[in-house]
Amino acid sequence: MNNTGPKTNAQQASEEPIIRISEMHKWYGEFHVLKNISLDVMPKERIVVCGPSGSGKSTMIRCINRLEEHQRGKIIVDGIELTNNLKNIEKIREEVGMVFQHFNLFPHLTILENLSLGPVWVRKVPKKEAEETAMYYLEKVHIAEQAHKYPGQLSGGQQQRVAVARSLCMKPRVMLFDEPTSALDPEMVKEVLDVMISLAQEGMTMIVVTHEMGFAKSVAHRVLFMDAGQIVEQNAPDEFFSNPQNERTQLFLSQILH
Ligand SMILES: Nc1ncnc2c1ncn2[C@@H]1O[C@H](COP(=O)(O)OP(=O)(O)O)[C@@H](O)[C@H]1O
Ligand SMILES: [Mg+2]
C-alpha cells in the first residue's frame, strides 16, 4: 500500500468541493425565493434535486452560473467566487454547462452549426476543430447522422440530445440539468436519460433537477428535496425514498410515486 506517497492531482481535486454554496439567499423584489441554501458538491458527484413546482429549484441552479444573481451568502465554483466580476462570471460559465427544459436551438442553423457556434465565437476555436468536436459529441449522443439537418426536422428527444452535445462542446466540468425531460413526449424520455446516464458513467459532475425518480435511484449519489426556497431534506437515494424524514418530503413522494 502506498498511501503515504505524494497525492496525484486527481486525488487532491477530489477532496475539495467543486461547487460550494454557503448560506445563500435570493430575493425577486420583495419575494424571498431562496432561504439559506448551503450545498457542497464534490467532483464527480451526481445530485438530483426534486420538490414541488415553485420551490426554487430552477432559481437555485441558475444561480450557480449566474443566470440569476444571489444577494446574500457565497457561491464558489472551482475556487472562483461568483460576484459582479465579469471575468469570473465568464470563467465560471466556461466550467458549468446547462441544459434546459426547452432546448433553445437556433432554428435557422443546422445541428452542426448550432454546436460549433459557441466554441467558434466565444472560445475562438478554429471552425474545423469546432466541427470535429461537434461531430465527436454528436456521436456520443447517437445523432451524428443528423448533423446537417435543422432543429425543426428532429424530434424533441433528438433536439434535447443535441442540446446536451452543444453543452459538452464547451468542455464543461459540471453539468446542470433543469427538468431536461419534462417537455418531452413519454417515448422520448428514455433516450435523453440514457445519454445522461452515460455522461454520469464517464464521471461528469452533475446537478439534475428532475422528477424522474428511476433516474434518481440509479444515478444520483444524493437526492435533495426543496420546498418553499429551502433544502428541506437530503439523503442517499435508498434512504431518501425508503425512509423520508420530513413530512413535506413524504407528502411530495406519495404524490409523485403514486
Ligand atoms: N424572474 C422572476 N421574478 C419573480 N419571481 C420569480 C421569477 N422566477 C421565478 N419566480 C418565482 O420564484 C419561485 C421559484 O421559482 P422556480 O425557481 O422557477 O421554482 P421551481 O423551479 O422549483 O418550479 C416561484 O414562486 C416563481 O413564481
Ligand atoms: Mg423549475
Automatic annotation (TrEMBL):
Keyword Transcription regulation on entry: no
Top-level taxonomic group: Bacteria
Entry keyword set: ATP-binding, Nucleotide-binding, Transport
Database matches in SMART domains: AAA (SM00382)
GO MF annotation list: ABC-type amino acid transporter activity; ATP binding; ATP hydrolysis activity
CDD domains: ABC_HisP_GlnQ
PROSITE patterns according to UniProt: ABC_TRANSPORTER_1, ABC_TRANSPORTER_2
Keyword flag ATP-binding: yes
Boundaries of every ABC transporter domain copy: 19-253
Family of the protein in this entry: Belongs to the ABC transporter superfamily.
Protein name (record): Amino acid ABC transporter ATP-binding protein
Species whose genome carries this gene: Desulfonema ishimotonii
